Amino acid sequence: MNTALLVLRLVPGLLFIGHGLQKLVPAKYSPPLLHAAGPSATAGFFEQLGLRPGLPFVFGAGLAEVGGGFLIASGLVTPLGTAVLAAVMTVAVLAVHLRNGIWVTEGGFEFALLMLASVYVVSALGPGSFSIDSWAGIGNWTGVHWAVQDATRAGAAVGIGAAAGVLTLASGLARKAWDAERHAPSAAH
What we know:
Elements: H1 2-24, H2 38-48, H3 54-74, H4 78-97, H5 110-125, H6 132-136, H7 150-183
């Protein structure tokens, strides 16, 4: 079981790290396997989505994916990694993929949902004995094992992250509306 948990942590964790690096590494410095777009190009895309200014959102998303991916892959405070990644995946699903339907071949949210489900399962099952939490003896770092089931705690982590993602989108859309209103021609002229 611990080997299976290790694989379940490593695959999505490393993929999240890769997705974060695609945003953070400038294209001219990207290794061929990474295919990084870099901060500037990604910022332009984020601004088209209404996340302005794009560059801070790029760094936030990229660092969240790298950091959250590391927490999941290493088995270090996995509920925190789950919450961080749930925020990023919520924004990705709502801002980019939802309008395209389910299937990834059509730009849908299938892959984002699968990645989110995998980090939920890691949090619900725990990181296993091949993890930093286990080696450091901090399996109950939240101190709430007595209060709720593991699956409930993992669900709370996803819920907290999803709420943060929705708030991020709302702030971006509010900024977009405020900018549009500020630049709209006055009716008095």
